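Budget justification note: compute hours in this period were largely spent on complex prediction jobs such as the one shown. Inputs:
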Amino acid sequence: MTKAQLPIGLIGAGRIGRVHAQHLSHRIARAKLLMVSDICEESAQQCAAQFDVEQTTTDYRRVLEHPDIRAVVICSSTDTHAQIIEEAAECGKQIFCEKPIDHGLDKIDRALQSVERADVLLQIGFNRRFDANFRRIRDAVVQGEIGNPHLLHIISRDPSPPPIEYVKVSGGLFLDMTIHDLDMARYLMGQEVEEIYASGAVLIDPAIGEAGDLDTAVIVLKFAGGAIGTIDNSRQAVYGYDQRAEVFGSGGSVQTGNNWPNQVTVLGRKSVTRDLPLNFFMERYLDSYLDEMRQFVEAVVTGGPSPMSGQEGRISVVMGLAAWKSHQENRPVRLDEIDPV
Amino acid sequence: MTKAQLPIGLIGAGRIGRVHAQHLSHRIARAKLLMVSDICEESAQQCAAQFDVEQTTTDYRRVLEHPDIRAVVICSSTDTHAQIIEEAAECGKQIFCEKPIDHGLDKIDRALQSVERADVLLQIGFNRRFDANFRRIRDAVVQGEIGNPHLLHIISRDPSPPPIEYVKVSGGLFLDMTIHDLDMARYLMGQEVEEIYASGAVLIDPAIGEAGDLDTAVIVLKFAGGAIGTIDNSRQAVYGYDQRAEVFGSGGSVQTGNNWPNQVTVLGRKSVTRDLPLNFFMERYLDSYLDEMRQFVEAVVTGGPSPMSGQEGRISVVMGLAAWKSHQENRPVRLDEIDPV
Amino acid sequence: MTKAQLPIGLIGAGRIGRVHAQHLSHRIARAKLLMVSDICEESAQQCAAQFDVEQTTTDYRRVLEHPDIRAVVICSSTDTHAQIIEEAAECGKQIFCEKPIDHGLDKIDRALQSVERADVLLQIGFNRRFDANFRRIRDAVVQGEIGNPHLLHIISRDPSPPPIEYVKVSGGLFLDMTIHDLDMARYLMGQEVEEIYASGAVLIDPAIGEAGDLDTAVIVLKFAGGAIGTIDNSRQAVYGYDQRAEVFGSGGSVQTGNNWPNQVTVLGRKSVTRDLPLNFFMERYLDSYLDEMRQFVEAVVTGGPSPMSGQEGRISVVMGLAAWKSHQENRPVRLDEIDPV
Amino acid sequence: MTKAQLPIGLIGAGRIGRVHAQHLSHRIARAKLLMVSDICEESAQQCAAQFDVEQTTTDYRRVLEHPDIRAVVICSSTDTHAQIIEEAAECGKQIFCEKPIDHGLDKIDRALQSVERADVLLQIGFNRRFDANFRRIRDAVVQGEIGNPHLLHIISRDPSPPPIEYVKVSGGLFLDMTIHDLDMARYLMGQEVEEIYASGAVLIDPAIGEAGDLDTAVIVLKFAGGAIGTIDNSRQAVYGYDQRAEVFGSGGSVQTGNNWPNQVTVLGRKSVTRDLPLNFFMERYLDSYLDEMRQFVEAVVTGGPSPMSGQEGRISVVMGLAAWKSHQENRPVRLDEIDPV
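Corresponding output:
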C-alpha cells in the first residue's frame, strides 16, 4: 500500500461485492482493499484469493474496528444495510453502500442521522448515474440542448426473473428493480416527482404473483415542473437486457439505445440481423460500477461531497413505496402521502 | 369513366379532401371522381379543376342524390359527419368518412344504426392502419413473432400545434389527436382496452390551456389480456413529426422508428448528423392515405367487408371520452363507465 | 389535353417504357401522352390501354411525324437509341432517351451532332441523379459540408443477374450496369475522372463468363483533383438491391445507406432483425424516375437546359470503354486513350 | 508472484508499451511483469512506478538474461524488432513483438529462423484480430453465413497524421498504417492475396509528400479464390477514427460500423445528431490490446500455438512492399514479384 492509497474494507463478498473487489484491487490505483468480510467464510476467502486481499473475516465488525481501514464498501443483504451504515458511521468510516438503503423509512432515517452525526461521507450504489449513455442524456437536459423537459420515458427490462426465493425477500418489483429507474428519472430530468401512478401485472410467471410480487409494470411520474414520465419494467426480455431512455422537451429530444457486443450487421437471404444487446447488468454496466467506485475513492481522498447521497437514496425508496400503494389502490399517489413534509 | 370504375362523390374539399381527390382521380384506376361538394364554392371549383372532376356543388345533398354516384367520401367538418352518414346511408351510398365519426356517442349510434339498416359499407379514415411500419408491427404480433404481448408504447407527436380557433372546436387533444393512437393501440395489440388513466398538461402554449385543452399527455391503457400500454402525445416536437411504436411480449419485441426524407449521414468535426424525419402527416402518411382509399374502392367493388368499420371508429371515441374523464378526475376510468354494456 | 400540357410520344413500351407511361399519364399534370409505339403491336396496345393513351403504332416514325407531338421518350433497345435520336432531332422533337446512348462513340457523336444542329433538348435517363439520397450527398459536397473530396465509394449490387440472352447484347457489365455508377461518381464528386483501373471476375455464374462478360468488379477512379474513388459491382446480392455511397473529404464524410420497406426492428431470442432493403430498381428508384420525367417536361415547357445532357451521357460511355480496356490489359487506362482530346 | 503466474519483461516503455504494462500488471491474473526496460531511464522508471513493477533497466539485454523472466514483450522502435527477436529467441524467451517485424524481408527471415531454431513462441501485435467487430465478421465468413466471399472493403482512417519526424522513419503509409489492414484483409477473408494495385495521393499535408510519403490511398487486392478487395486509407478523418469493414459473398454480406462513446441521439430543430465515434486506437482498440496479451500469456502458459505467428506478420510486409511498388509504377504487382516462391 502506498501512502496515497485509501485503505478499504469490503463487507459482503457476493456477486456485486466481487465486482467492487476487482475494481478496488486492480483498476483503481488510489484504492487498497485490506480486508474482505462475509458471513460465509469460504466466500470471503475465495474473493480475497482472487483479488489479492490479505485479510478475511466472517464478522463485519472486525472491518469496522480495523484501525487502518478508512472506508467500507457494504454489499451485504439489504436488510443489514441500515444497521451496518449506523455502526460504520459511529466508527468514523467513510461509507459506500449498495442500493437500497432499506425498505423502511424509519430505519433509513436512523441510518442517515448517524451518518450526519458522524460527519462521514455516504454514497449509495446507484451505478447507472455513472453510465456514459445516461450521463449524456443528463448533460443534454442540464445544458438545455432540448429546452424544458416535457416527457420522459425509461425502458428497463431484465433478461430473466430472479429465483423465487430472492423475489420473496426482494421488497418487490418497485423496491428491487424499479428503484434504479426511479432514481434515474430524477437524475435525467433534474426535477423532483410529486405523484406516482403504478399499473402492474403478473404476465411472465404465476409463481411471482403467488409470492405477492409483480413481473411487469408501467409507472407514471408527475414532476414538480408539470412534466410527465413513464417507466416500463419487465422481468423477462428474452433478447437480453433492455435499458433505454428518452427525454423530450420544448427544444428537442434526447434518446439512448442499448449497448451491443459488436457493431456488426449480417444481410442474408431472409433478413438483416445483428447480435443481441449485452445480456445483463454485469456486462452492460461494468464501466459504471468502476466509475462509481473511482468517484467514491476520489470523494473520500479529496474530501469532496458524495456523488450520490443518502438523501437521494432515500427518495427512491419513498417513490418505490408510493408505487406499491398506487398499484394496490389503483389510483395516483402523491409522494407526501408516503413522506409528509 | 370505364364500366369497371366506381363513381364517387367527394363531400368537403379541404386539405384532406384534396388528398383523397388526387388519389381517386389519378392513382386508383378503378375509381372515378364524378362530383366535388364544398360549402365554399371556390374551394369546390379549385379542387375539381386540379383533379379533373367535371361537376361541383355547394350542397352535399346533390352528391347524395346523384343517380350515378355509388359511393361518397366525407371530408367535411367533424360536426357534420354523423348527419351526412345518416343521409348517405338512406340514399344507399357506400360511405367513407374521415375520423372521428362524432364526439357524442348518441349521434354516432344513430349514424351506425342508419348504416346497418341501409346495409351499406362504412369505412372510417384511420389511415395509420394502412401504414407499412404499423402493419409490420401488427403482423409480427398476430403471427406470434413476439409471443404474447405484455407492453405497448406509442409515441405520437405533432411538429406544431394547430391554430387556437381549431383547438376550440377540435373536441380536445384526446378526441382530435390521441384518437388515432387509441385506435392504433387496439390495432397493434389485437386486443380490447378495459381501463384508461390519462395524465395531461399544458406545457407548450398557455392559450391551449385557456381554451380548455391540453398539449401534452401520457395515457395508460390496461388491456383485457392484462397487458399495459402507454401513449405519449405532444402538440409540438420541434424536430418534426414523431411517430413510433413498440410492442413487447413474451417472445421478444417489435419496434418501429420514423420515416426519413433520405438515408444520408454526415460526419463532421463536431458530431454525426442526419436530416430531420418527415415533417408532418401529409408526407409521412401519404402512402397510407392512398392505400386506405384503394381498399375502400376495392371493398365496395367486390362487396367485401369494411377494412375499418364504424363500430371500430366508435370504440376510439369511447376511449377518448374515458381519457378525458380520467384526466379530469385524476383516476383510472373503465371503458364501461363511459359505455355500459 | 389542356393548352398548358406537353404532347408526348413514347417509343418502346417495355418495362421502363411503362414506368414512364404511367408517370406521364397519371402523375405529371403538365404532360399528355398522345401515342405509344412498340415493334410488338400487343405490347403497344396493352400499354396504351393501361395508361389511357389513345393512339398506338408499331412504327416509331409515325410518332416522329405526328404533328401534335412535341417531345419523345425513347425506351427502345439500346442499339436503336442513336438512330432514333438523330431522326427525332431532324423532326424537331425534344428528346428524352434511356441510357446508354450507344456503346460506340462514333454513333453517339453523330447523334449528338444532330441534336446540336436541330437545337433540340436531349436528356439521358440517368435517373439516380434525381434520387433523394444521392442528391443529398451531392449537395453536401457542393456546399462544402465535407471540405475537399478525397475519397469516393459506390456500392451498387443487383439482386440477381439478368437472363444470359440479355447479357450477350448488354454491352457487358461496365456499359450496362456500371455505367450508372460511373455517371454517379462524376455527379457526387463534381469532378472529372482521368484514369480508370478495373478488376473484374466471374464468381456468380460461369455462363456469364462464357458469354464474355463479368459478374463482379471493382473499379478504381482517379479524379482530376487527385481524389480516388472505387465502385463495387455485383450482379447478385441475395438480400436485394444494394445501393450505397460515401464521399470523404478534408472536412468530414457523407454517406448514404439503402432504402427500406419499413422502419421496423424485431428483437427475438437469437438476434435482432429487420426486413431486407427494397428489392430492385423499380421500388428503390421509383421516385427518381418520376422526378427525372417531371424535370424533362419542365425543361421542355420552360425552355430550360437539359438536367442531364447528351454530352454527360457520352462521358459515361467513354468511362465504360476505359474500364473494359483496363480489365482486359490489367493496367490503369487514362480516359484520353479512349477519347483523345 | 504466484506459482501459476508467467514472469514477463517489457522492452520499450513508450505509449504502446505502457498499454501492455497496465494489462500485464492489473488485468491479466496469470501474468507478472517483473522488469521494464527502456533506453530512456526516466521512461522506464515512470512506467514501473505507474504499474507496480519492481525492476527497471536501460539495457534490454538485462531483460533477456534475467533468469526468472520467461517471456518478453517487445515495444521498442521498429528498426530494433528483428535484432531483439533474434537475441530473445537465443535466450529461450517466449516473444511478443509489436508490428511490423521489420521493413526488410532479409532481416525478418533471419529473425524468424532464430525463432524456429529456438523453438519459442512468437506473436506479432496485430491487435485488430482480437477486436469483437472484426472477429464477428471473420466468424461469419468462416461459418459460411455469407457463402463464398466475393468482395471485401476495409475503411481505415486516422483522426490526424503523425508528426513529420515520425513519418520520415515510419516506412511509409503502406508499411506503417496499411499494414494493419493488409493483415485484416487476409484475416477477414480467410484467403491469401495474389496481386495488389495501389493508388496513393497527397491530399492532406504537402509536407507528407515532401517526406516521400502518401496520406491518402486506395489499395485493390486480388485474392487467390478470385475475390476482389479494397482498402481505403486516410491519415486525417476530422470526425475521428474510422474503422469499418464489409465482406460480401454469394450468400449475403457482413458489415461492421464504428464504436461509439455512447448510444445517444439528439433530435433538435435542425438535425438529428450523435457524438463522434471513439477518437483513436487507444479508446477504440483497448479491449483488443488486452485480449491479444491475454491470449499470448495463455499460449505461453499452456504451450499452445501463437494466435498470430511471425509468418503471418511477414506476409503483411510483403504486401506492404508490393503496394509501394504498385504505387510507384502505377500497375498491379503480384506478390511473387516481391517474394518469389
